[in-house]
Amino acid sequence: MVQTAYNAQHKIQWHWELPSYLVTKSIAGGIFMLLSLGSMFGSFNFDSATFLAAGFTAMVFMLITTILLIKDLSQPKRFLNILLRPQWKSWVARGAYIMVTFTAVAGLWWLLEAGAFWNILPADFVAGIRPIAAWIVFPFALGVVIYTAFLLGQAEGRDMWQNNLLPFQLLSQSAMVASGVFFILNLFVNFPADLTALLTVLFPASIAVNLLMTFAGKLNSFPTDTAMLASREMTHGKFRNHYWWGGIALGHVIPLLLMIAFAPALPVAVLATLVGLFFYEYAFVMAPQHIPNS
Asked: How far is CA 189 from CA 88, 127, 196, 274, 278, in A?
């Protein structure tokens, strides 16, 4: 994920790390977006135990994201160079700073909530600044989720990635995996009833919306022959099984059917969504790289 690689004509620059990183940062950013929205607009209540469990999980996935990013760059020194010598026109640098800032402000919010939970800080004080923290964290959480759409948009010659729907699709993907992870956490931490009710709607709805946007993107006319060839490579070529059986069937159809037909299988539905999204992202990232730019 370095700027100099954008013009590579036939080299496969990105491999499994980028699809994995797309999933992990969607979880991290999505969890804090949901927590922030709940605090900003009072759409649901959550206690300290809920926040600490969800926030810690998000931080773990953000750590995994950082490890994947550094591995993708091959040398940790490259990540430091991006931070210390940023090229601000590049979304590689912008994305790195978005992730660093998100980790800092979200981590600070988590520490404040932990201080209230363990009676180190006054609970009233933390409750009072919670909405302020939410308004600060939310834009960076959103940025973590969607900035990759603009990064991929800078990849010259990878025309299939030049898609105006991509930021919105990343947002819906984040909603479905983050709400799914919330459901898994609910097996260990008792969430407030209004949060559980919201998740019960958000998880299947976001899966359905993302499925519709996935197909909508295929119905649009392709701007170039290269984009059309890359799309065919993804859906009918080398990556067709990743796309149809992994991304569509495992990641969308099976979770929806399980939610409708057998609600106790919800953890299986969540796992299917996570694995299926990885397969979809793998096809999405790899297919355009197998099409020569010329």
From this structure: 42, 20, 11, 21, 26
CA distance 66 to 37: 25
pTM: 0.92
What are the residue ranges of helices labelled H in 186-224? 193-219
Rounded to 10°, the helix 193-219/166-185 angle is 150
Q: How many domains does the chain have?
A: 1
Contacts of 195 (CB under 8 A, 6+ apart): 38, 44, 45, 46, 50, 182
CATH number, domain with residue 34: 1.20.1630.10
How far apart are alpha carbons 65 and 2 in whole angstroms? Answer: 16
Judge whether residue 1 has pLDDT over 50: no
- Give per-residue pLDDT as tens, 228-275: 888 899 999 999 999 999 999 999 999 999 998 888 899 999 999 999
Answer yes or no: is 181 within a domain.
yes
Q: Determine the Cα–Cα distance for residues 243 and 247; give it in Å rounded to an integer.
A: 5
Report pLDDT digits (tens) over 73-113. Answer: 776 777 778 888 888 888 889 999 999 999 999 999 999 99
Give CA 156 to chain center in angstroms: 23
